[in-house]
Amino acid sequence: MPTYFSNPVAHAQALIKCPSVTPEQAGSLDYLETVLTQAGFRCQRLPYESATSPRVDNLYARIGSGSPHLCFAGHVDVVPPGEETDWTYPPFDAHIVDGVLYGRGAVDMKGGVAAMLSAAMRYLEANNAGFNGSISFLITGDEEGPGVNGTGNVVDWMRENGEQPDHCLLGEPTSLTLFGDTIKNGRRGSLNGQLTVIGEQGHVAYPHLAKNPLTGLIAVLKRLLDEVLDDGSANFAPSNFEVTSIDTGNPTTNVIPAKVSARFNIRFNDLHTGASLSDRIATLADTMLHPTGLMHDLDIDVSSDSFLTQPGGWVDKLMKAIGDVTCLTPKLSTSGGTSDARFINKLCPVVEFGLLNKTIHKVDEQVPVAHLHELTDIFHNFMRRYFP
């Protein structure tokens, strides 16, 4: 194999230089496919599109056919850089200054992809003669976007085509204070909703001749905000309900609007399901609004239910690999938002581990070069423990 195959810094720079603002892959998947093909992986490009979401390209690659089958997962799409003049160094130039690599995606998560790739190359180079398992890569271009044409579709394709990993390691940036301090072994579920209340428009001076939809909406939202969903569970933080938008489209101050809509999100733990919360909200809205004569429409989308990957076994092997390199004992956590693990856990057990997340989505996103090498060492150490 060429020397650069196992160099995470070279891979990270090459990926950052591809301006793959979601949903564009901008050459990043082409680069990965070239490297993986040259290393002997069988590669499959999996583009998907839908009527309401843009076309997204994805990549699945596998070497070997036996078990155990370890899947590395990640994404090459990035959020927009914002005003490029605010950056110390251009966001897609991949400058290294004083041992720090700057660029959009350096942490979230082209650096993680580069480390996974380098670790796999290093492992295969050392164990090619005696390697009996399988290594695969599931790389999407739709993690930072709507998540409609990315990992979820690839997981369906894998299931339909007999591509069944035993475990998956997702290289999202999970470290909080010190590199190596946190593994995400689960996530809370996420529910997005929009409640629209319909009344009757009228003059504010004659409220008896109108039906103010805001009155009903505020009452329902207050009930939901005052209600304690739970106090948390053994592995998850308490569930929380948050109102994210209220809109009447009313440009004047002396008109009672005809309708009003509120958007909200619930992050919920394993004491609930998306279906149970949906029914709960629908029942509450019906009970409170029907007697008032106000009409309403409720639209709910459950992005994911909560999931938990149990500790022990292969997770312990990852923890030991992290400890060998960082001298830390990582904490298992289910905090934070959603990730593509919500799709992967339907296929196989999954955990997330990666770089420090302090600069993700920020101007001057950056990663110490030393951390890229250490992350590669961790993944390589883990693979040596994982495969017999």
Supply database-style keywords.
single chain; 388 residues; alpha+beta; 6-stranded mixed sheet; 4-stranded antiparallel sheet; 9 helices; 29% helix; elongated
**Portion in helices:** 25-40%
The strand count comes to 19
Rg, Cα atoms, Å: 24 Å
The residue-averaged pLDDT reads 96
Q: Which structural class should the secondary elements be placed in?
A: alpha+beta
Largest sheet: 6 strands, mixed
Return residue spans where pLDDT drops below 50 for at least 5 consecutive residues.
none
Q: Helices and strands, in N-to-C order?
A: HHEEEEEHEHEEEEEHEEEHEEHEHEEH
Number of helices: 9
Straight-line N-to-C gap:
23 Å
Overall shape: it is elongated
Order of strands in the sheet with the most strands? Answer: 1-2-6-3-7-18
Strand content: 15-25%
